[in-house]
Amino acid sequence: MRNRKVILLLLVLLGMVTFLDRINISVAGSSIMADLNLSAVQWGWVQSAFILSYGLMQIPMGMLGDRFGQRRVLTAIVVWWSLFTCFTGMAGGLLSLLAVRFFFGIGEAGSSPCSTGVISRWFPKNEVGKAQGYVWAASRMGGALTPFVVIPVMAWMGWRSAFYLLGVVGLVWALVWFLYYRDKGDATTERLGNAGQEPKGQPLPWGIILRSSQFWLICSMYFFYAFGSWFFFSWFPTFMELGRGFAKSELTYAVAVPFVMSMVGNISGGYLTDRLSVRYGLKVGRKALGASSLAVSAVCMFLAAFIPGKMAVFVFLSLCFGIFDLMLPSAWALCVDLGKQHAGAISGAMNTAGNIGGFFCGILFGFLVEASGNYNLPLYMIAAMLVVSAILFSFINPEKPLIPEK
């Protein structure tokens, strides 16, 4: 029997690798900008080039995983993005950096929807939120570890070497995944929900889905949430260094602690959403938890912008990241609740919408900073977006599947 705990461990490691490869460019941001002579607006485009391709390819990658199985698809995409992680270290200017990060995003786009497909296939319904919580917590742990990996390597060998190192780590994971994972469990596999099922290759009924108000609520909610999350994945280290005066040596804890808070939020949110759903129903375990987390995080983001000083912004942004990620397992578990056997594609669609939000956040942040010279101004924008996301989450009905059951 293929052990679900081992599969979850591999997904946890994938979450860490995904964010190590993604956040490294943000930690190295000021060094790259200085080395390649990039302005704040140009750096915003570099960040958003990845987000654009990452968002556009979410649905296709999720559908590929659902149709052909996550063993082959995840292996291929991790190899792809690991190579482009290495290629990032070879960039010589703005155009080459834009191209490499765009192609890097194509590969990383499949990580979350394919992981959700694996979870929907191998885990019983009452463990879906917990599994999602661990995977997303691992991604945040990857973000927390990034400055401890990237900054010493940069100091020793330069920023380019950090990308070569992390690219090799991804290639090793892809090899282990291909050798171990199977898309179908054996006869002893516990079959609850979609657990243990083989890829069915069923066509996705887009006509029904696109007419569902639930679908558009999920996508819109995630679009506005991503204004907050992508700040932490793109501009956050640069904001702390150039906007609030943190020294490069201080960025290790200043960046790591908020990601650790996010990790705690994801694990707690995973347990809470499953436990509350079993005890009080999905409307409490998914919707109430998600909406309230987003609302409180908006307040923390506003206070981070409003109150001056290094320690204040560190505390409130740490709280913000931890609290709004309490909702993340709920949001991704919704894709399993409402998408059923099409969970990979639905989660891909949701994440596409989120990355469109992140694309605009990355660009608008750069424009607002360059136009005003004020790094705090974009945080007010992000706080407003989180409020809108909380309102939209409150209208989702987690008990109504997108495709009516026959």
Task: Tell me what the structure shows.
By secondary structure, this protein is an all-alpha fold. It has 17 helices and no strands. It has helices spanning 4-27, 29-36, 40-56, 58-68, 70-88, 94-108, 111-122, 128-157, 159-180, 206-210, 213-243, 251-280, 282-306, 310-324, 328-339, 343-372, 377-393. The chain starts with a helix and ends in a 13-residue tail after the last helix.
Average pLDDT for all residues: 83
Helix content: over 70%
Gap between N and C termini: 32 Å
The arrangement of helices and strands along the chain is HHHHHHHHHHHHHHHHH
* Major beta sheet summary: none
Uncertain runs are 185-199
- Rg over CA atoms: 20 Å
The count of β-strands is: 0
Q: What does the overall shape look like?
A: globular
Determine the strand fraction and express it as a percent band: under 5%
Number of helices: 17
From the helix content, strand content and strand pairing, which structural class follows? mainly alpha
What's the arrangement of secondary structure elements?
Layout: H1 4-27, H2 29-36, H3 40-56, H4 58-68, H5 70-88, H6 94-108, H7 111-122, H8 128-157, H9 159-180, H10 206-210, H11 213-243, H12 251-280, H13 282-306, H14 310-324, H15 328-339, H16 343-372, H17 377-393
